[in-house]
Specification:
Elements (H helix, E strand, L loop, with lengths): L1 E5 L4 E8 L5 H21 L3 H22 L6 E7 L5 E9 L3 E9 L18 H15 L4 E5 L5 H5 L4 E2 L4 E5 L5
Parallel strand pairs: 5-6
Antiparallel strand pairs: 1-2, 2-3, 3-4, 4-5, 6-8, 7-8
Helix pairs in contact: 1-2
């Protein structure tokens, strides 16, 4: 599935795939690299909102490394969003349950975060949306009725703009339509 995402300078085609299990060690290294990139930006941030943005990026990258290092449940899938140069721009860890797909973690490259600390000309926009669209398509293909996730306060508007509705304790849900 290819999405064309335009930026101020260039057009970046993005595509998303389900990673084969043999790629997981490499994806763990990618998450570690993103953590290393985000940590110093957290201390350079000028505002509390920027610090929170990079703290969240650092934390999610750390959680993803830990989860990939552990033995993932057989129901786990990792979706990878790449650009035309085959560079990873986003990752999503999902679990497939009887009627639902749970998005456990979703992270984009820390240099793509909307911050004055990041140069706009190098940003690739749309990786998070591409990952969500892929998760929805995947859920529909395997006849899941709903996608759910737990959202932080700062990312709730992103998910609401993509059709998710608030449920209990920070959880957000989106119904999926599929034909049996």
């Amino acid at each position: 599935m290819a999405n064309i995402i335009s930026t101020t300078k260039q057009i970046y085609p993005l595509y998303v795939v389900t990673a084969p299990k043999q790629d997981y060690p490499c994806l763990r290294k990618t998450a570690k690299l993103w953590q290393v990139i985000a940590e110093p930006k957290q201390s350079e941030a000028q505002t509390e909102a920027e610090r929170a943005l990079f703290f969240q990026s650092t934390s999610v990258a750390s959680w993803l490394q830990a989860r990939i290092s552990q033995t993932l449940l057989p129901s786990a899938e990792i979706y990878v969003c790449k650009d035309q140069q085959n560079r990873v721009q986003g990752l999503c860890l999902a679990y497939l349950y009887k009627n639902e797909l749970e998005i456990d973690l979703l992270i984009t490259h820390p240099l793509n975060l909307d911050s004055p600390l990041n140069e706009k000309k190098y940003q690739v926009r749309g990786a998070g949306t591409a990952l969500l669209n892929y998760a929805e398509k995947r859920a529909s293909e395997i006849e899941k009725r709903e996608i759910y996730l737990t959202s932080s306060r700062s990312s709730t508007p992103f998910f609401k703009n993509r059709g998710f509705q608030a449920a209990d304790h920070g959880e957000m849900r989106k119904r999926i339509s599929w034909q049996p």
